[in-house]
Amino acid sequence: MRIKKNDKVLVKSGKSRGVKSEVISVNREENLVTVKGVNEVQRHVKRSQKNMQGGRISKLMPISASNVAVICPKCQQPSKIGYSINENGKKVRVCKKCKAVIDIEK
User: Fold this and answer.
1) Whether 42 contacts 57, CB under 8 Å
2) Were both Cys, which of 1, 3, 74, 81 would link to 100 (CB 3.0–4.6 Å)?
3) Where on the phi/psi map is residue 74: left (φ > 0), alpha (ψ -120 to 50), or beta?
4) What contacts 63, CB < 8 A, 6 or more positions away?
5) pLDDT in tens, 16-34
6) What are φ and ψ of residue 28, in 5° steps?
């Protein structure tokens, strides 16, 4: 999967189409990503020791990774992601439009 946690993404389809936000978590086995502020559902919870008030609780649900596009930090455009080997011999993610490196080296 070419999407990582904390990437800025654009939602391409669904009721939140056009929203630019940040990836909170990635599930590689099921090809799902959880995006901040997207696909938020209400869960009805009964009053208990753990939840004294009860009522409706907002919960973020994952969406398919194919429904989001990574936004390049340099050109600020949603684009496909490619890979290349940098001068240190490390594999890095690259924007297909402007050829800028997306990964931040530590």
Assistant:
1) yes
2) 74
3) alpha
4) 11, 14, 32, 33, 34, 35, 38, 39
5) 999 999 999 999 999 999 9
6) -70, -35
